[in-house]
Amino acid sequence: MTNEIGAVRRSPVVRVSAAVAADRGDRVYAAARDAAASVSVVRTGPTGVDELEPLVLATDDGRTAFFRSPSPSTTRDLVTEFESNGLPMSRADAIVDHDPDATSLPVPETGPLAAGRRLVLGPCGWVNPLDPADYTLCSTERDASVAVDMGILARGRGDAIADEPAIDAWERARETDGDPLIVVNANEPDDRQQADRTLLAGAPIAVLDGVAAVAEYVGAEDAVVYLNEHETTLQRHVRQAANAIEDELPVVPDVVVGPDEYRAGAPTAALEAMEGADRIEPRLQPPTPAEYGLYGRPTIVHTPRTFAQVRQAVHAPESIDADAPDPGTRLVTVTGDVETPAIVELDSSATLETTLDAVSMEGSLKMACVGGVFGGFTTDLGVAPTARSLTAADLGTDGVVELLSDRRCAVATAGERAQFASEANSGRCVPGREGTKQLTELLRDVYAGAFRSDGIRELGRVMARSSNCQIGAHAPRPVTTAMDEFESEFRAHANGRCPSGTCTDHL
């Protein structure tokens, strides 16, 4: 067997696609490697579709056969047959013909991988995540000026300027005295959001390439990737990627870790955590991080999703519609009452209905919560995945679509999120500290026979206007949107009845 480098330009080659911390993926990869004598075997990162993984891809001269979740013994047989008789097409779940020099995962015509597009996600599952030879680096020749011209918006709750043009922070950092610094905020303790982890696992060098392009634009010589303290395998993986690329990029980040707490993923709370603060809480703004960030330096805080979009704009500007209301694509984690979660990449012309094609529901769809734990509830997925459309529909923009079945109670589901807000907030501002408690109590009163709709909505308006933290500002949204869609369920609970039959013990 040849050594494990550079998957893209090898043929024949067997790829084993799985998460970096997947034991079954490790066993399937070991089985393929042990069985191979003349065919190269490469461990790639996740595709973003859990249902398929570990996914074995056998490629020969512009044709790839897909084998979803095979056992180690089946994998050994596939590799042996591949070496003896060519591609084992009779066993394949799908076969795709493609450019022999393809740098993105070829996509079958049907199945979960066919949902949406694969631009930013393209390398995931296809390239060797840790080999620079599998990437075309853009930051060595160009900075992020192209992304500036396109008006790329920042993405994700961990981004300091989420849903605003990234250039706003870059220009502010350039104009501020001091040495600029780049922070990749990838500490997302909420498992609903998987896109950033997938990018760092499947295409970490692409993210680092985007970091370097932004660093060149703002004049930064230092960068850090901020990860969850419990994700030790991912930490090691990102460090390996940084070490592999350090001689080729002008700026290569260090890896730092922060607490496994929801609040620690907020942009300015992340800065507090990295500075070693005893209490993790968001900072008052202004000044913004771009003016006064980590240790007082002008700091750009973006998520991996934002850096990946910047890299896509620089690397392949023709793939982005600069005239779209939200240039580029949005990565959406589809989760909830589904057999396995999946990540779907959507452009501005799509709707959230596309997410239904990527997963299998457990039960019938009743509602969706869009935007993370503090997203908005809706029964209409005919909404474009743009910041403008999502905000207009009172939904969240953090790239999560939870599909919830008819076994879910709207009142209980909203109440669980209000309770979480009362426990997860930093306590720094009154709306976050006291407002979330009042919100939780008002929902408990529903079970006691008092549904104060006007009181809940007024509290929500006050919290949204006056909170210093995202938790305080967004905590009312699941409750008020659930009331918009299912007010009759709230009134039924006040009358001692749960229409879904799940709250019997509370009534």
Automatic annotation (TrEMBL):
The keyword 4Fe-4S applies. Keywords: 4Fe-4S, Iron, Iron-sulfur, Metal-binding, Plasmid. Residues 415-493 form the NADH-ubiquinone oxidoreductase 51kDa subunit iron-sulphur binding domain. GO terms for molecular function: 4 iron, 4 sulfur cluster binding; metal ion binding. It holds the Pfam family NADH_4Fe-4S. Residues 156-311 form the NADH-ubiquinone oxidoreductase 51kDa subunit FMN-binding domain. Belongs to the complex I 51 kDa subunit family. This is Respiratory-chain NADH dehydrogenase domain 51 kDa subunit.
